[in-house]
Design a protein that fits this description.
Blueprint lengths: L3 H10 L1 H16 L1 E2 L9 H7 L10 E2 L2 E2 L5 H18 L3 E3 L5 H12 L5 E5 L15 H5 L1 E5 L10 H11 L3 E5 L9 H11 L2 E5 L4 H5 L13 E5 L10 E5 L4 H12 L5 H13 L3 H23 L13 E5 H5 L3 H10 L2 E2 L1 E3 L13 E5 L1 H5 L4 H16 L4 H15 L8
Parallel strand pairs: 1-12, 5-6, 5-7, 7-8, 8-9
Antiparallel strand pairs: 2-3, 4-10, 9-10, 11-14, 13-14
Helix pairs in contact: 1-2, 3-11, 4-11, 5-10, 7-8, 12-16, 16-17
Bound molecules: D-serine.
The site of D-serine has 4 residues, from loops.
């Protein structure tokens, strides 16, 4: 968080960038972030990201660095690792991944050989780019095979998953998602993986904060070998990645992150992650996580009451997917633009087996971590649901959108953005 002196200096040396910063702050204050992977970082996180730790190179690990001057960086990385292990009940933690993609790549590259088979969720059913999208380098390097969900309920089709596993003998079974509004039992994945001798990895990037707060299941409790999570979504930490694993994989994971994949870790990010893990262990964070889930249900109810079609019919976690084509006769790109105009930030989203292309998909994705971090509750979710449904039904009517934008501003003016 820059001090007022630092802001004044920025304004003087680069006014264009300063204006962009002010514009972004104003956008975040006046509008509302409903993208489920976004959040407002803890103020302590903003402070550390702009701190002296950003100046330091620290290749290696605590006690085994390549450069001198590590007395404070060793301390923060050790604290970050110990706190992460305690928070997630993990045997080993690596806090150095620069973000979500290198985090997942480090697991694949550290444990598997190029060409090995990985079983992961179909991307249109909610899987992530790093779970083997054909356009990603990992998708080219490894042989990804797929399982799907029942789009009406969201249930994983474990018969199909088992059949694919038996047929393709994957080395790794991956679960986790970026656009799946349900929860599942990790033991079901474990059983199939055990049958075919595969390792297990859960990418819980979206729900890391909800697992930390013990309001959603923890895959490590079901004996998963690896759990990965970004630290900036429901956890409210810095942009970054975290790998948790069994002790027997610790050496391979650490060597895969550094020197295998990355150079110097970003120690400002590691310091901010350490504070995040401390804050996420407090009772107040559990209350926040419970409110995230309650708000998602309230938002779903508000939308369903207006006959909006939600993929899987509702939510068990922090996110919802609206089928905008079926509900309003508009694609997700148009819906996203309409909602931008009324001050609600969402993202266009493919839905299961979407016949439409990713830039013009059939839906949008919503989430409650950010509005909940502003202190909003179920009454506000009812109003947000009403604004969304009315805006998408308004069919571009300028006057209607103006009046809905005023309703968004009335809402956000009552709930300041933490840290801004
Ligand atoms: N971009 C993140 C998301 O929106 O889910 C994941 O990389």
């Amino acid at each position: 968080m820059p001090t007022s002196d630092q802001r004044a200096q920025l304004a003087q040396s680069d006014h264009e960038i300063f204006l962009a910063l002010k514009g972004e702050e104003a956008r975040q204050r006046a509008g509302l972030e409903l993208i489920p992977s976004e959040n407002y970082a803890f103020p302590e996180v903003l402070t550390l990201l702009g701190s002296a730790f950003t100046n330091k190179y620290s290749e290696g690990y605590p006690g085994r660095r390549y450069y001198g001057g590590q007395e404070h960086t060793d301390r923060i990385e050790t604290l970050a690792r110990d706190r992460a292990k305690a928070l997630f009940r993990a045997e080993h933690a690596n806090v150095q991944p620069l973000s979500g993609s290198p985090m997942n790549q480090a697991v694949y590259l550290g444990l598997l050989e190029p060409g090995d088979t990985i079983l992961a969720m179909d991307l249109s059913h909610g899987g992530h780019l790093t779970h083997g999208a054909p356009v990603s380098h990992m998708g080219r390097l490894f042989n990804f095979v797929r399982y799907k969900t029942d789009p009406s309920t969201g249930a994983i089709d474990f018969d199909q998953l088992r059949a694919v596993a038996r047929q393709t003998r994957p080395k790794l079974v991956v679960c986790g998602y970026s656009s799946y509004p349900r929860d599942y039992d990790y033991a079901d994945f474990r059983r199939v993986a055990d049958e075919v001798g595969a390792l297990t990895m859960a990418d819980v990037s979206h729900i890391g904060g909800l697992i930390a707060a013990n309001v959603m299941r923890n895959p490590l409790d079901a004996g998963f070998d690896f759990m990965t999570t970004t630290t900036h979504k429901s956890l409210r930490g810095p942009r970054g990645g975290l790998i948790l694993c069994k002790e027997k994989f610790a050496k391979k994971i650490d060597a895969s992150v550094f020197p295998g994949l990355q150079g110097g870790p970003h120690m400002n990010q590691v310091a901010a992650a350490a504070v995040t893990f401390r804050l996420a262990a407090l009772p107040a964070f559990r209350a926040y996580a419970e409110a995230v889930l309650g708000n998602a249900k309230a938002l779903a109810e508000a939308l369903l009451a207006r006959r909006v079609r939600l993929v899987t019919g509702g939510t068990d976690n922090h996110l919802l997917v609206i089928d905008t084509v079926q509900s309003f006769g508009i694609d997700g790109a148009v819906a996203q633009e309409v909602l931008d105009r009324v001050g609600l930030t969402t993202n266009k989203q493919v839905i299961p087996d979407d016949p439409n292309p990713p830039m013009r998909p059939s839906g949008i994705r919503l989430g409650t971590p950010a509005p909940t971090a502003r202190g909003m509750g179920e009454a506000e979710m009812a109003e947000i649901g009403a604004i969304i449904a009315e805006a998408l039904a308004a069919n571009g009517d300028h006057a209607a959108e103006e009046s809905l934008a005023a309703r968004t501003r009335a809402l956000t003016s009552r709930f300041p953005v933490p840290g801004l």
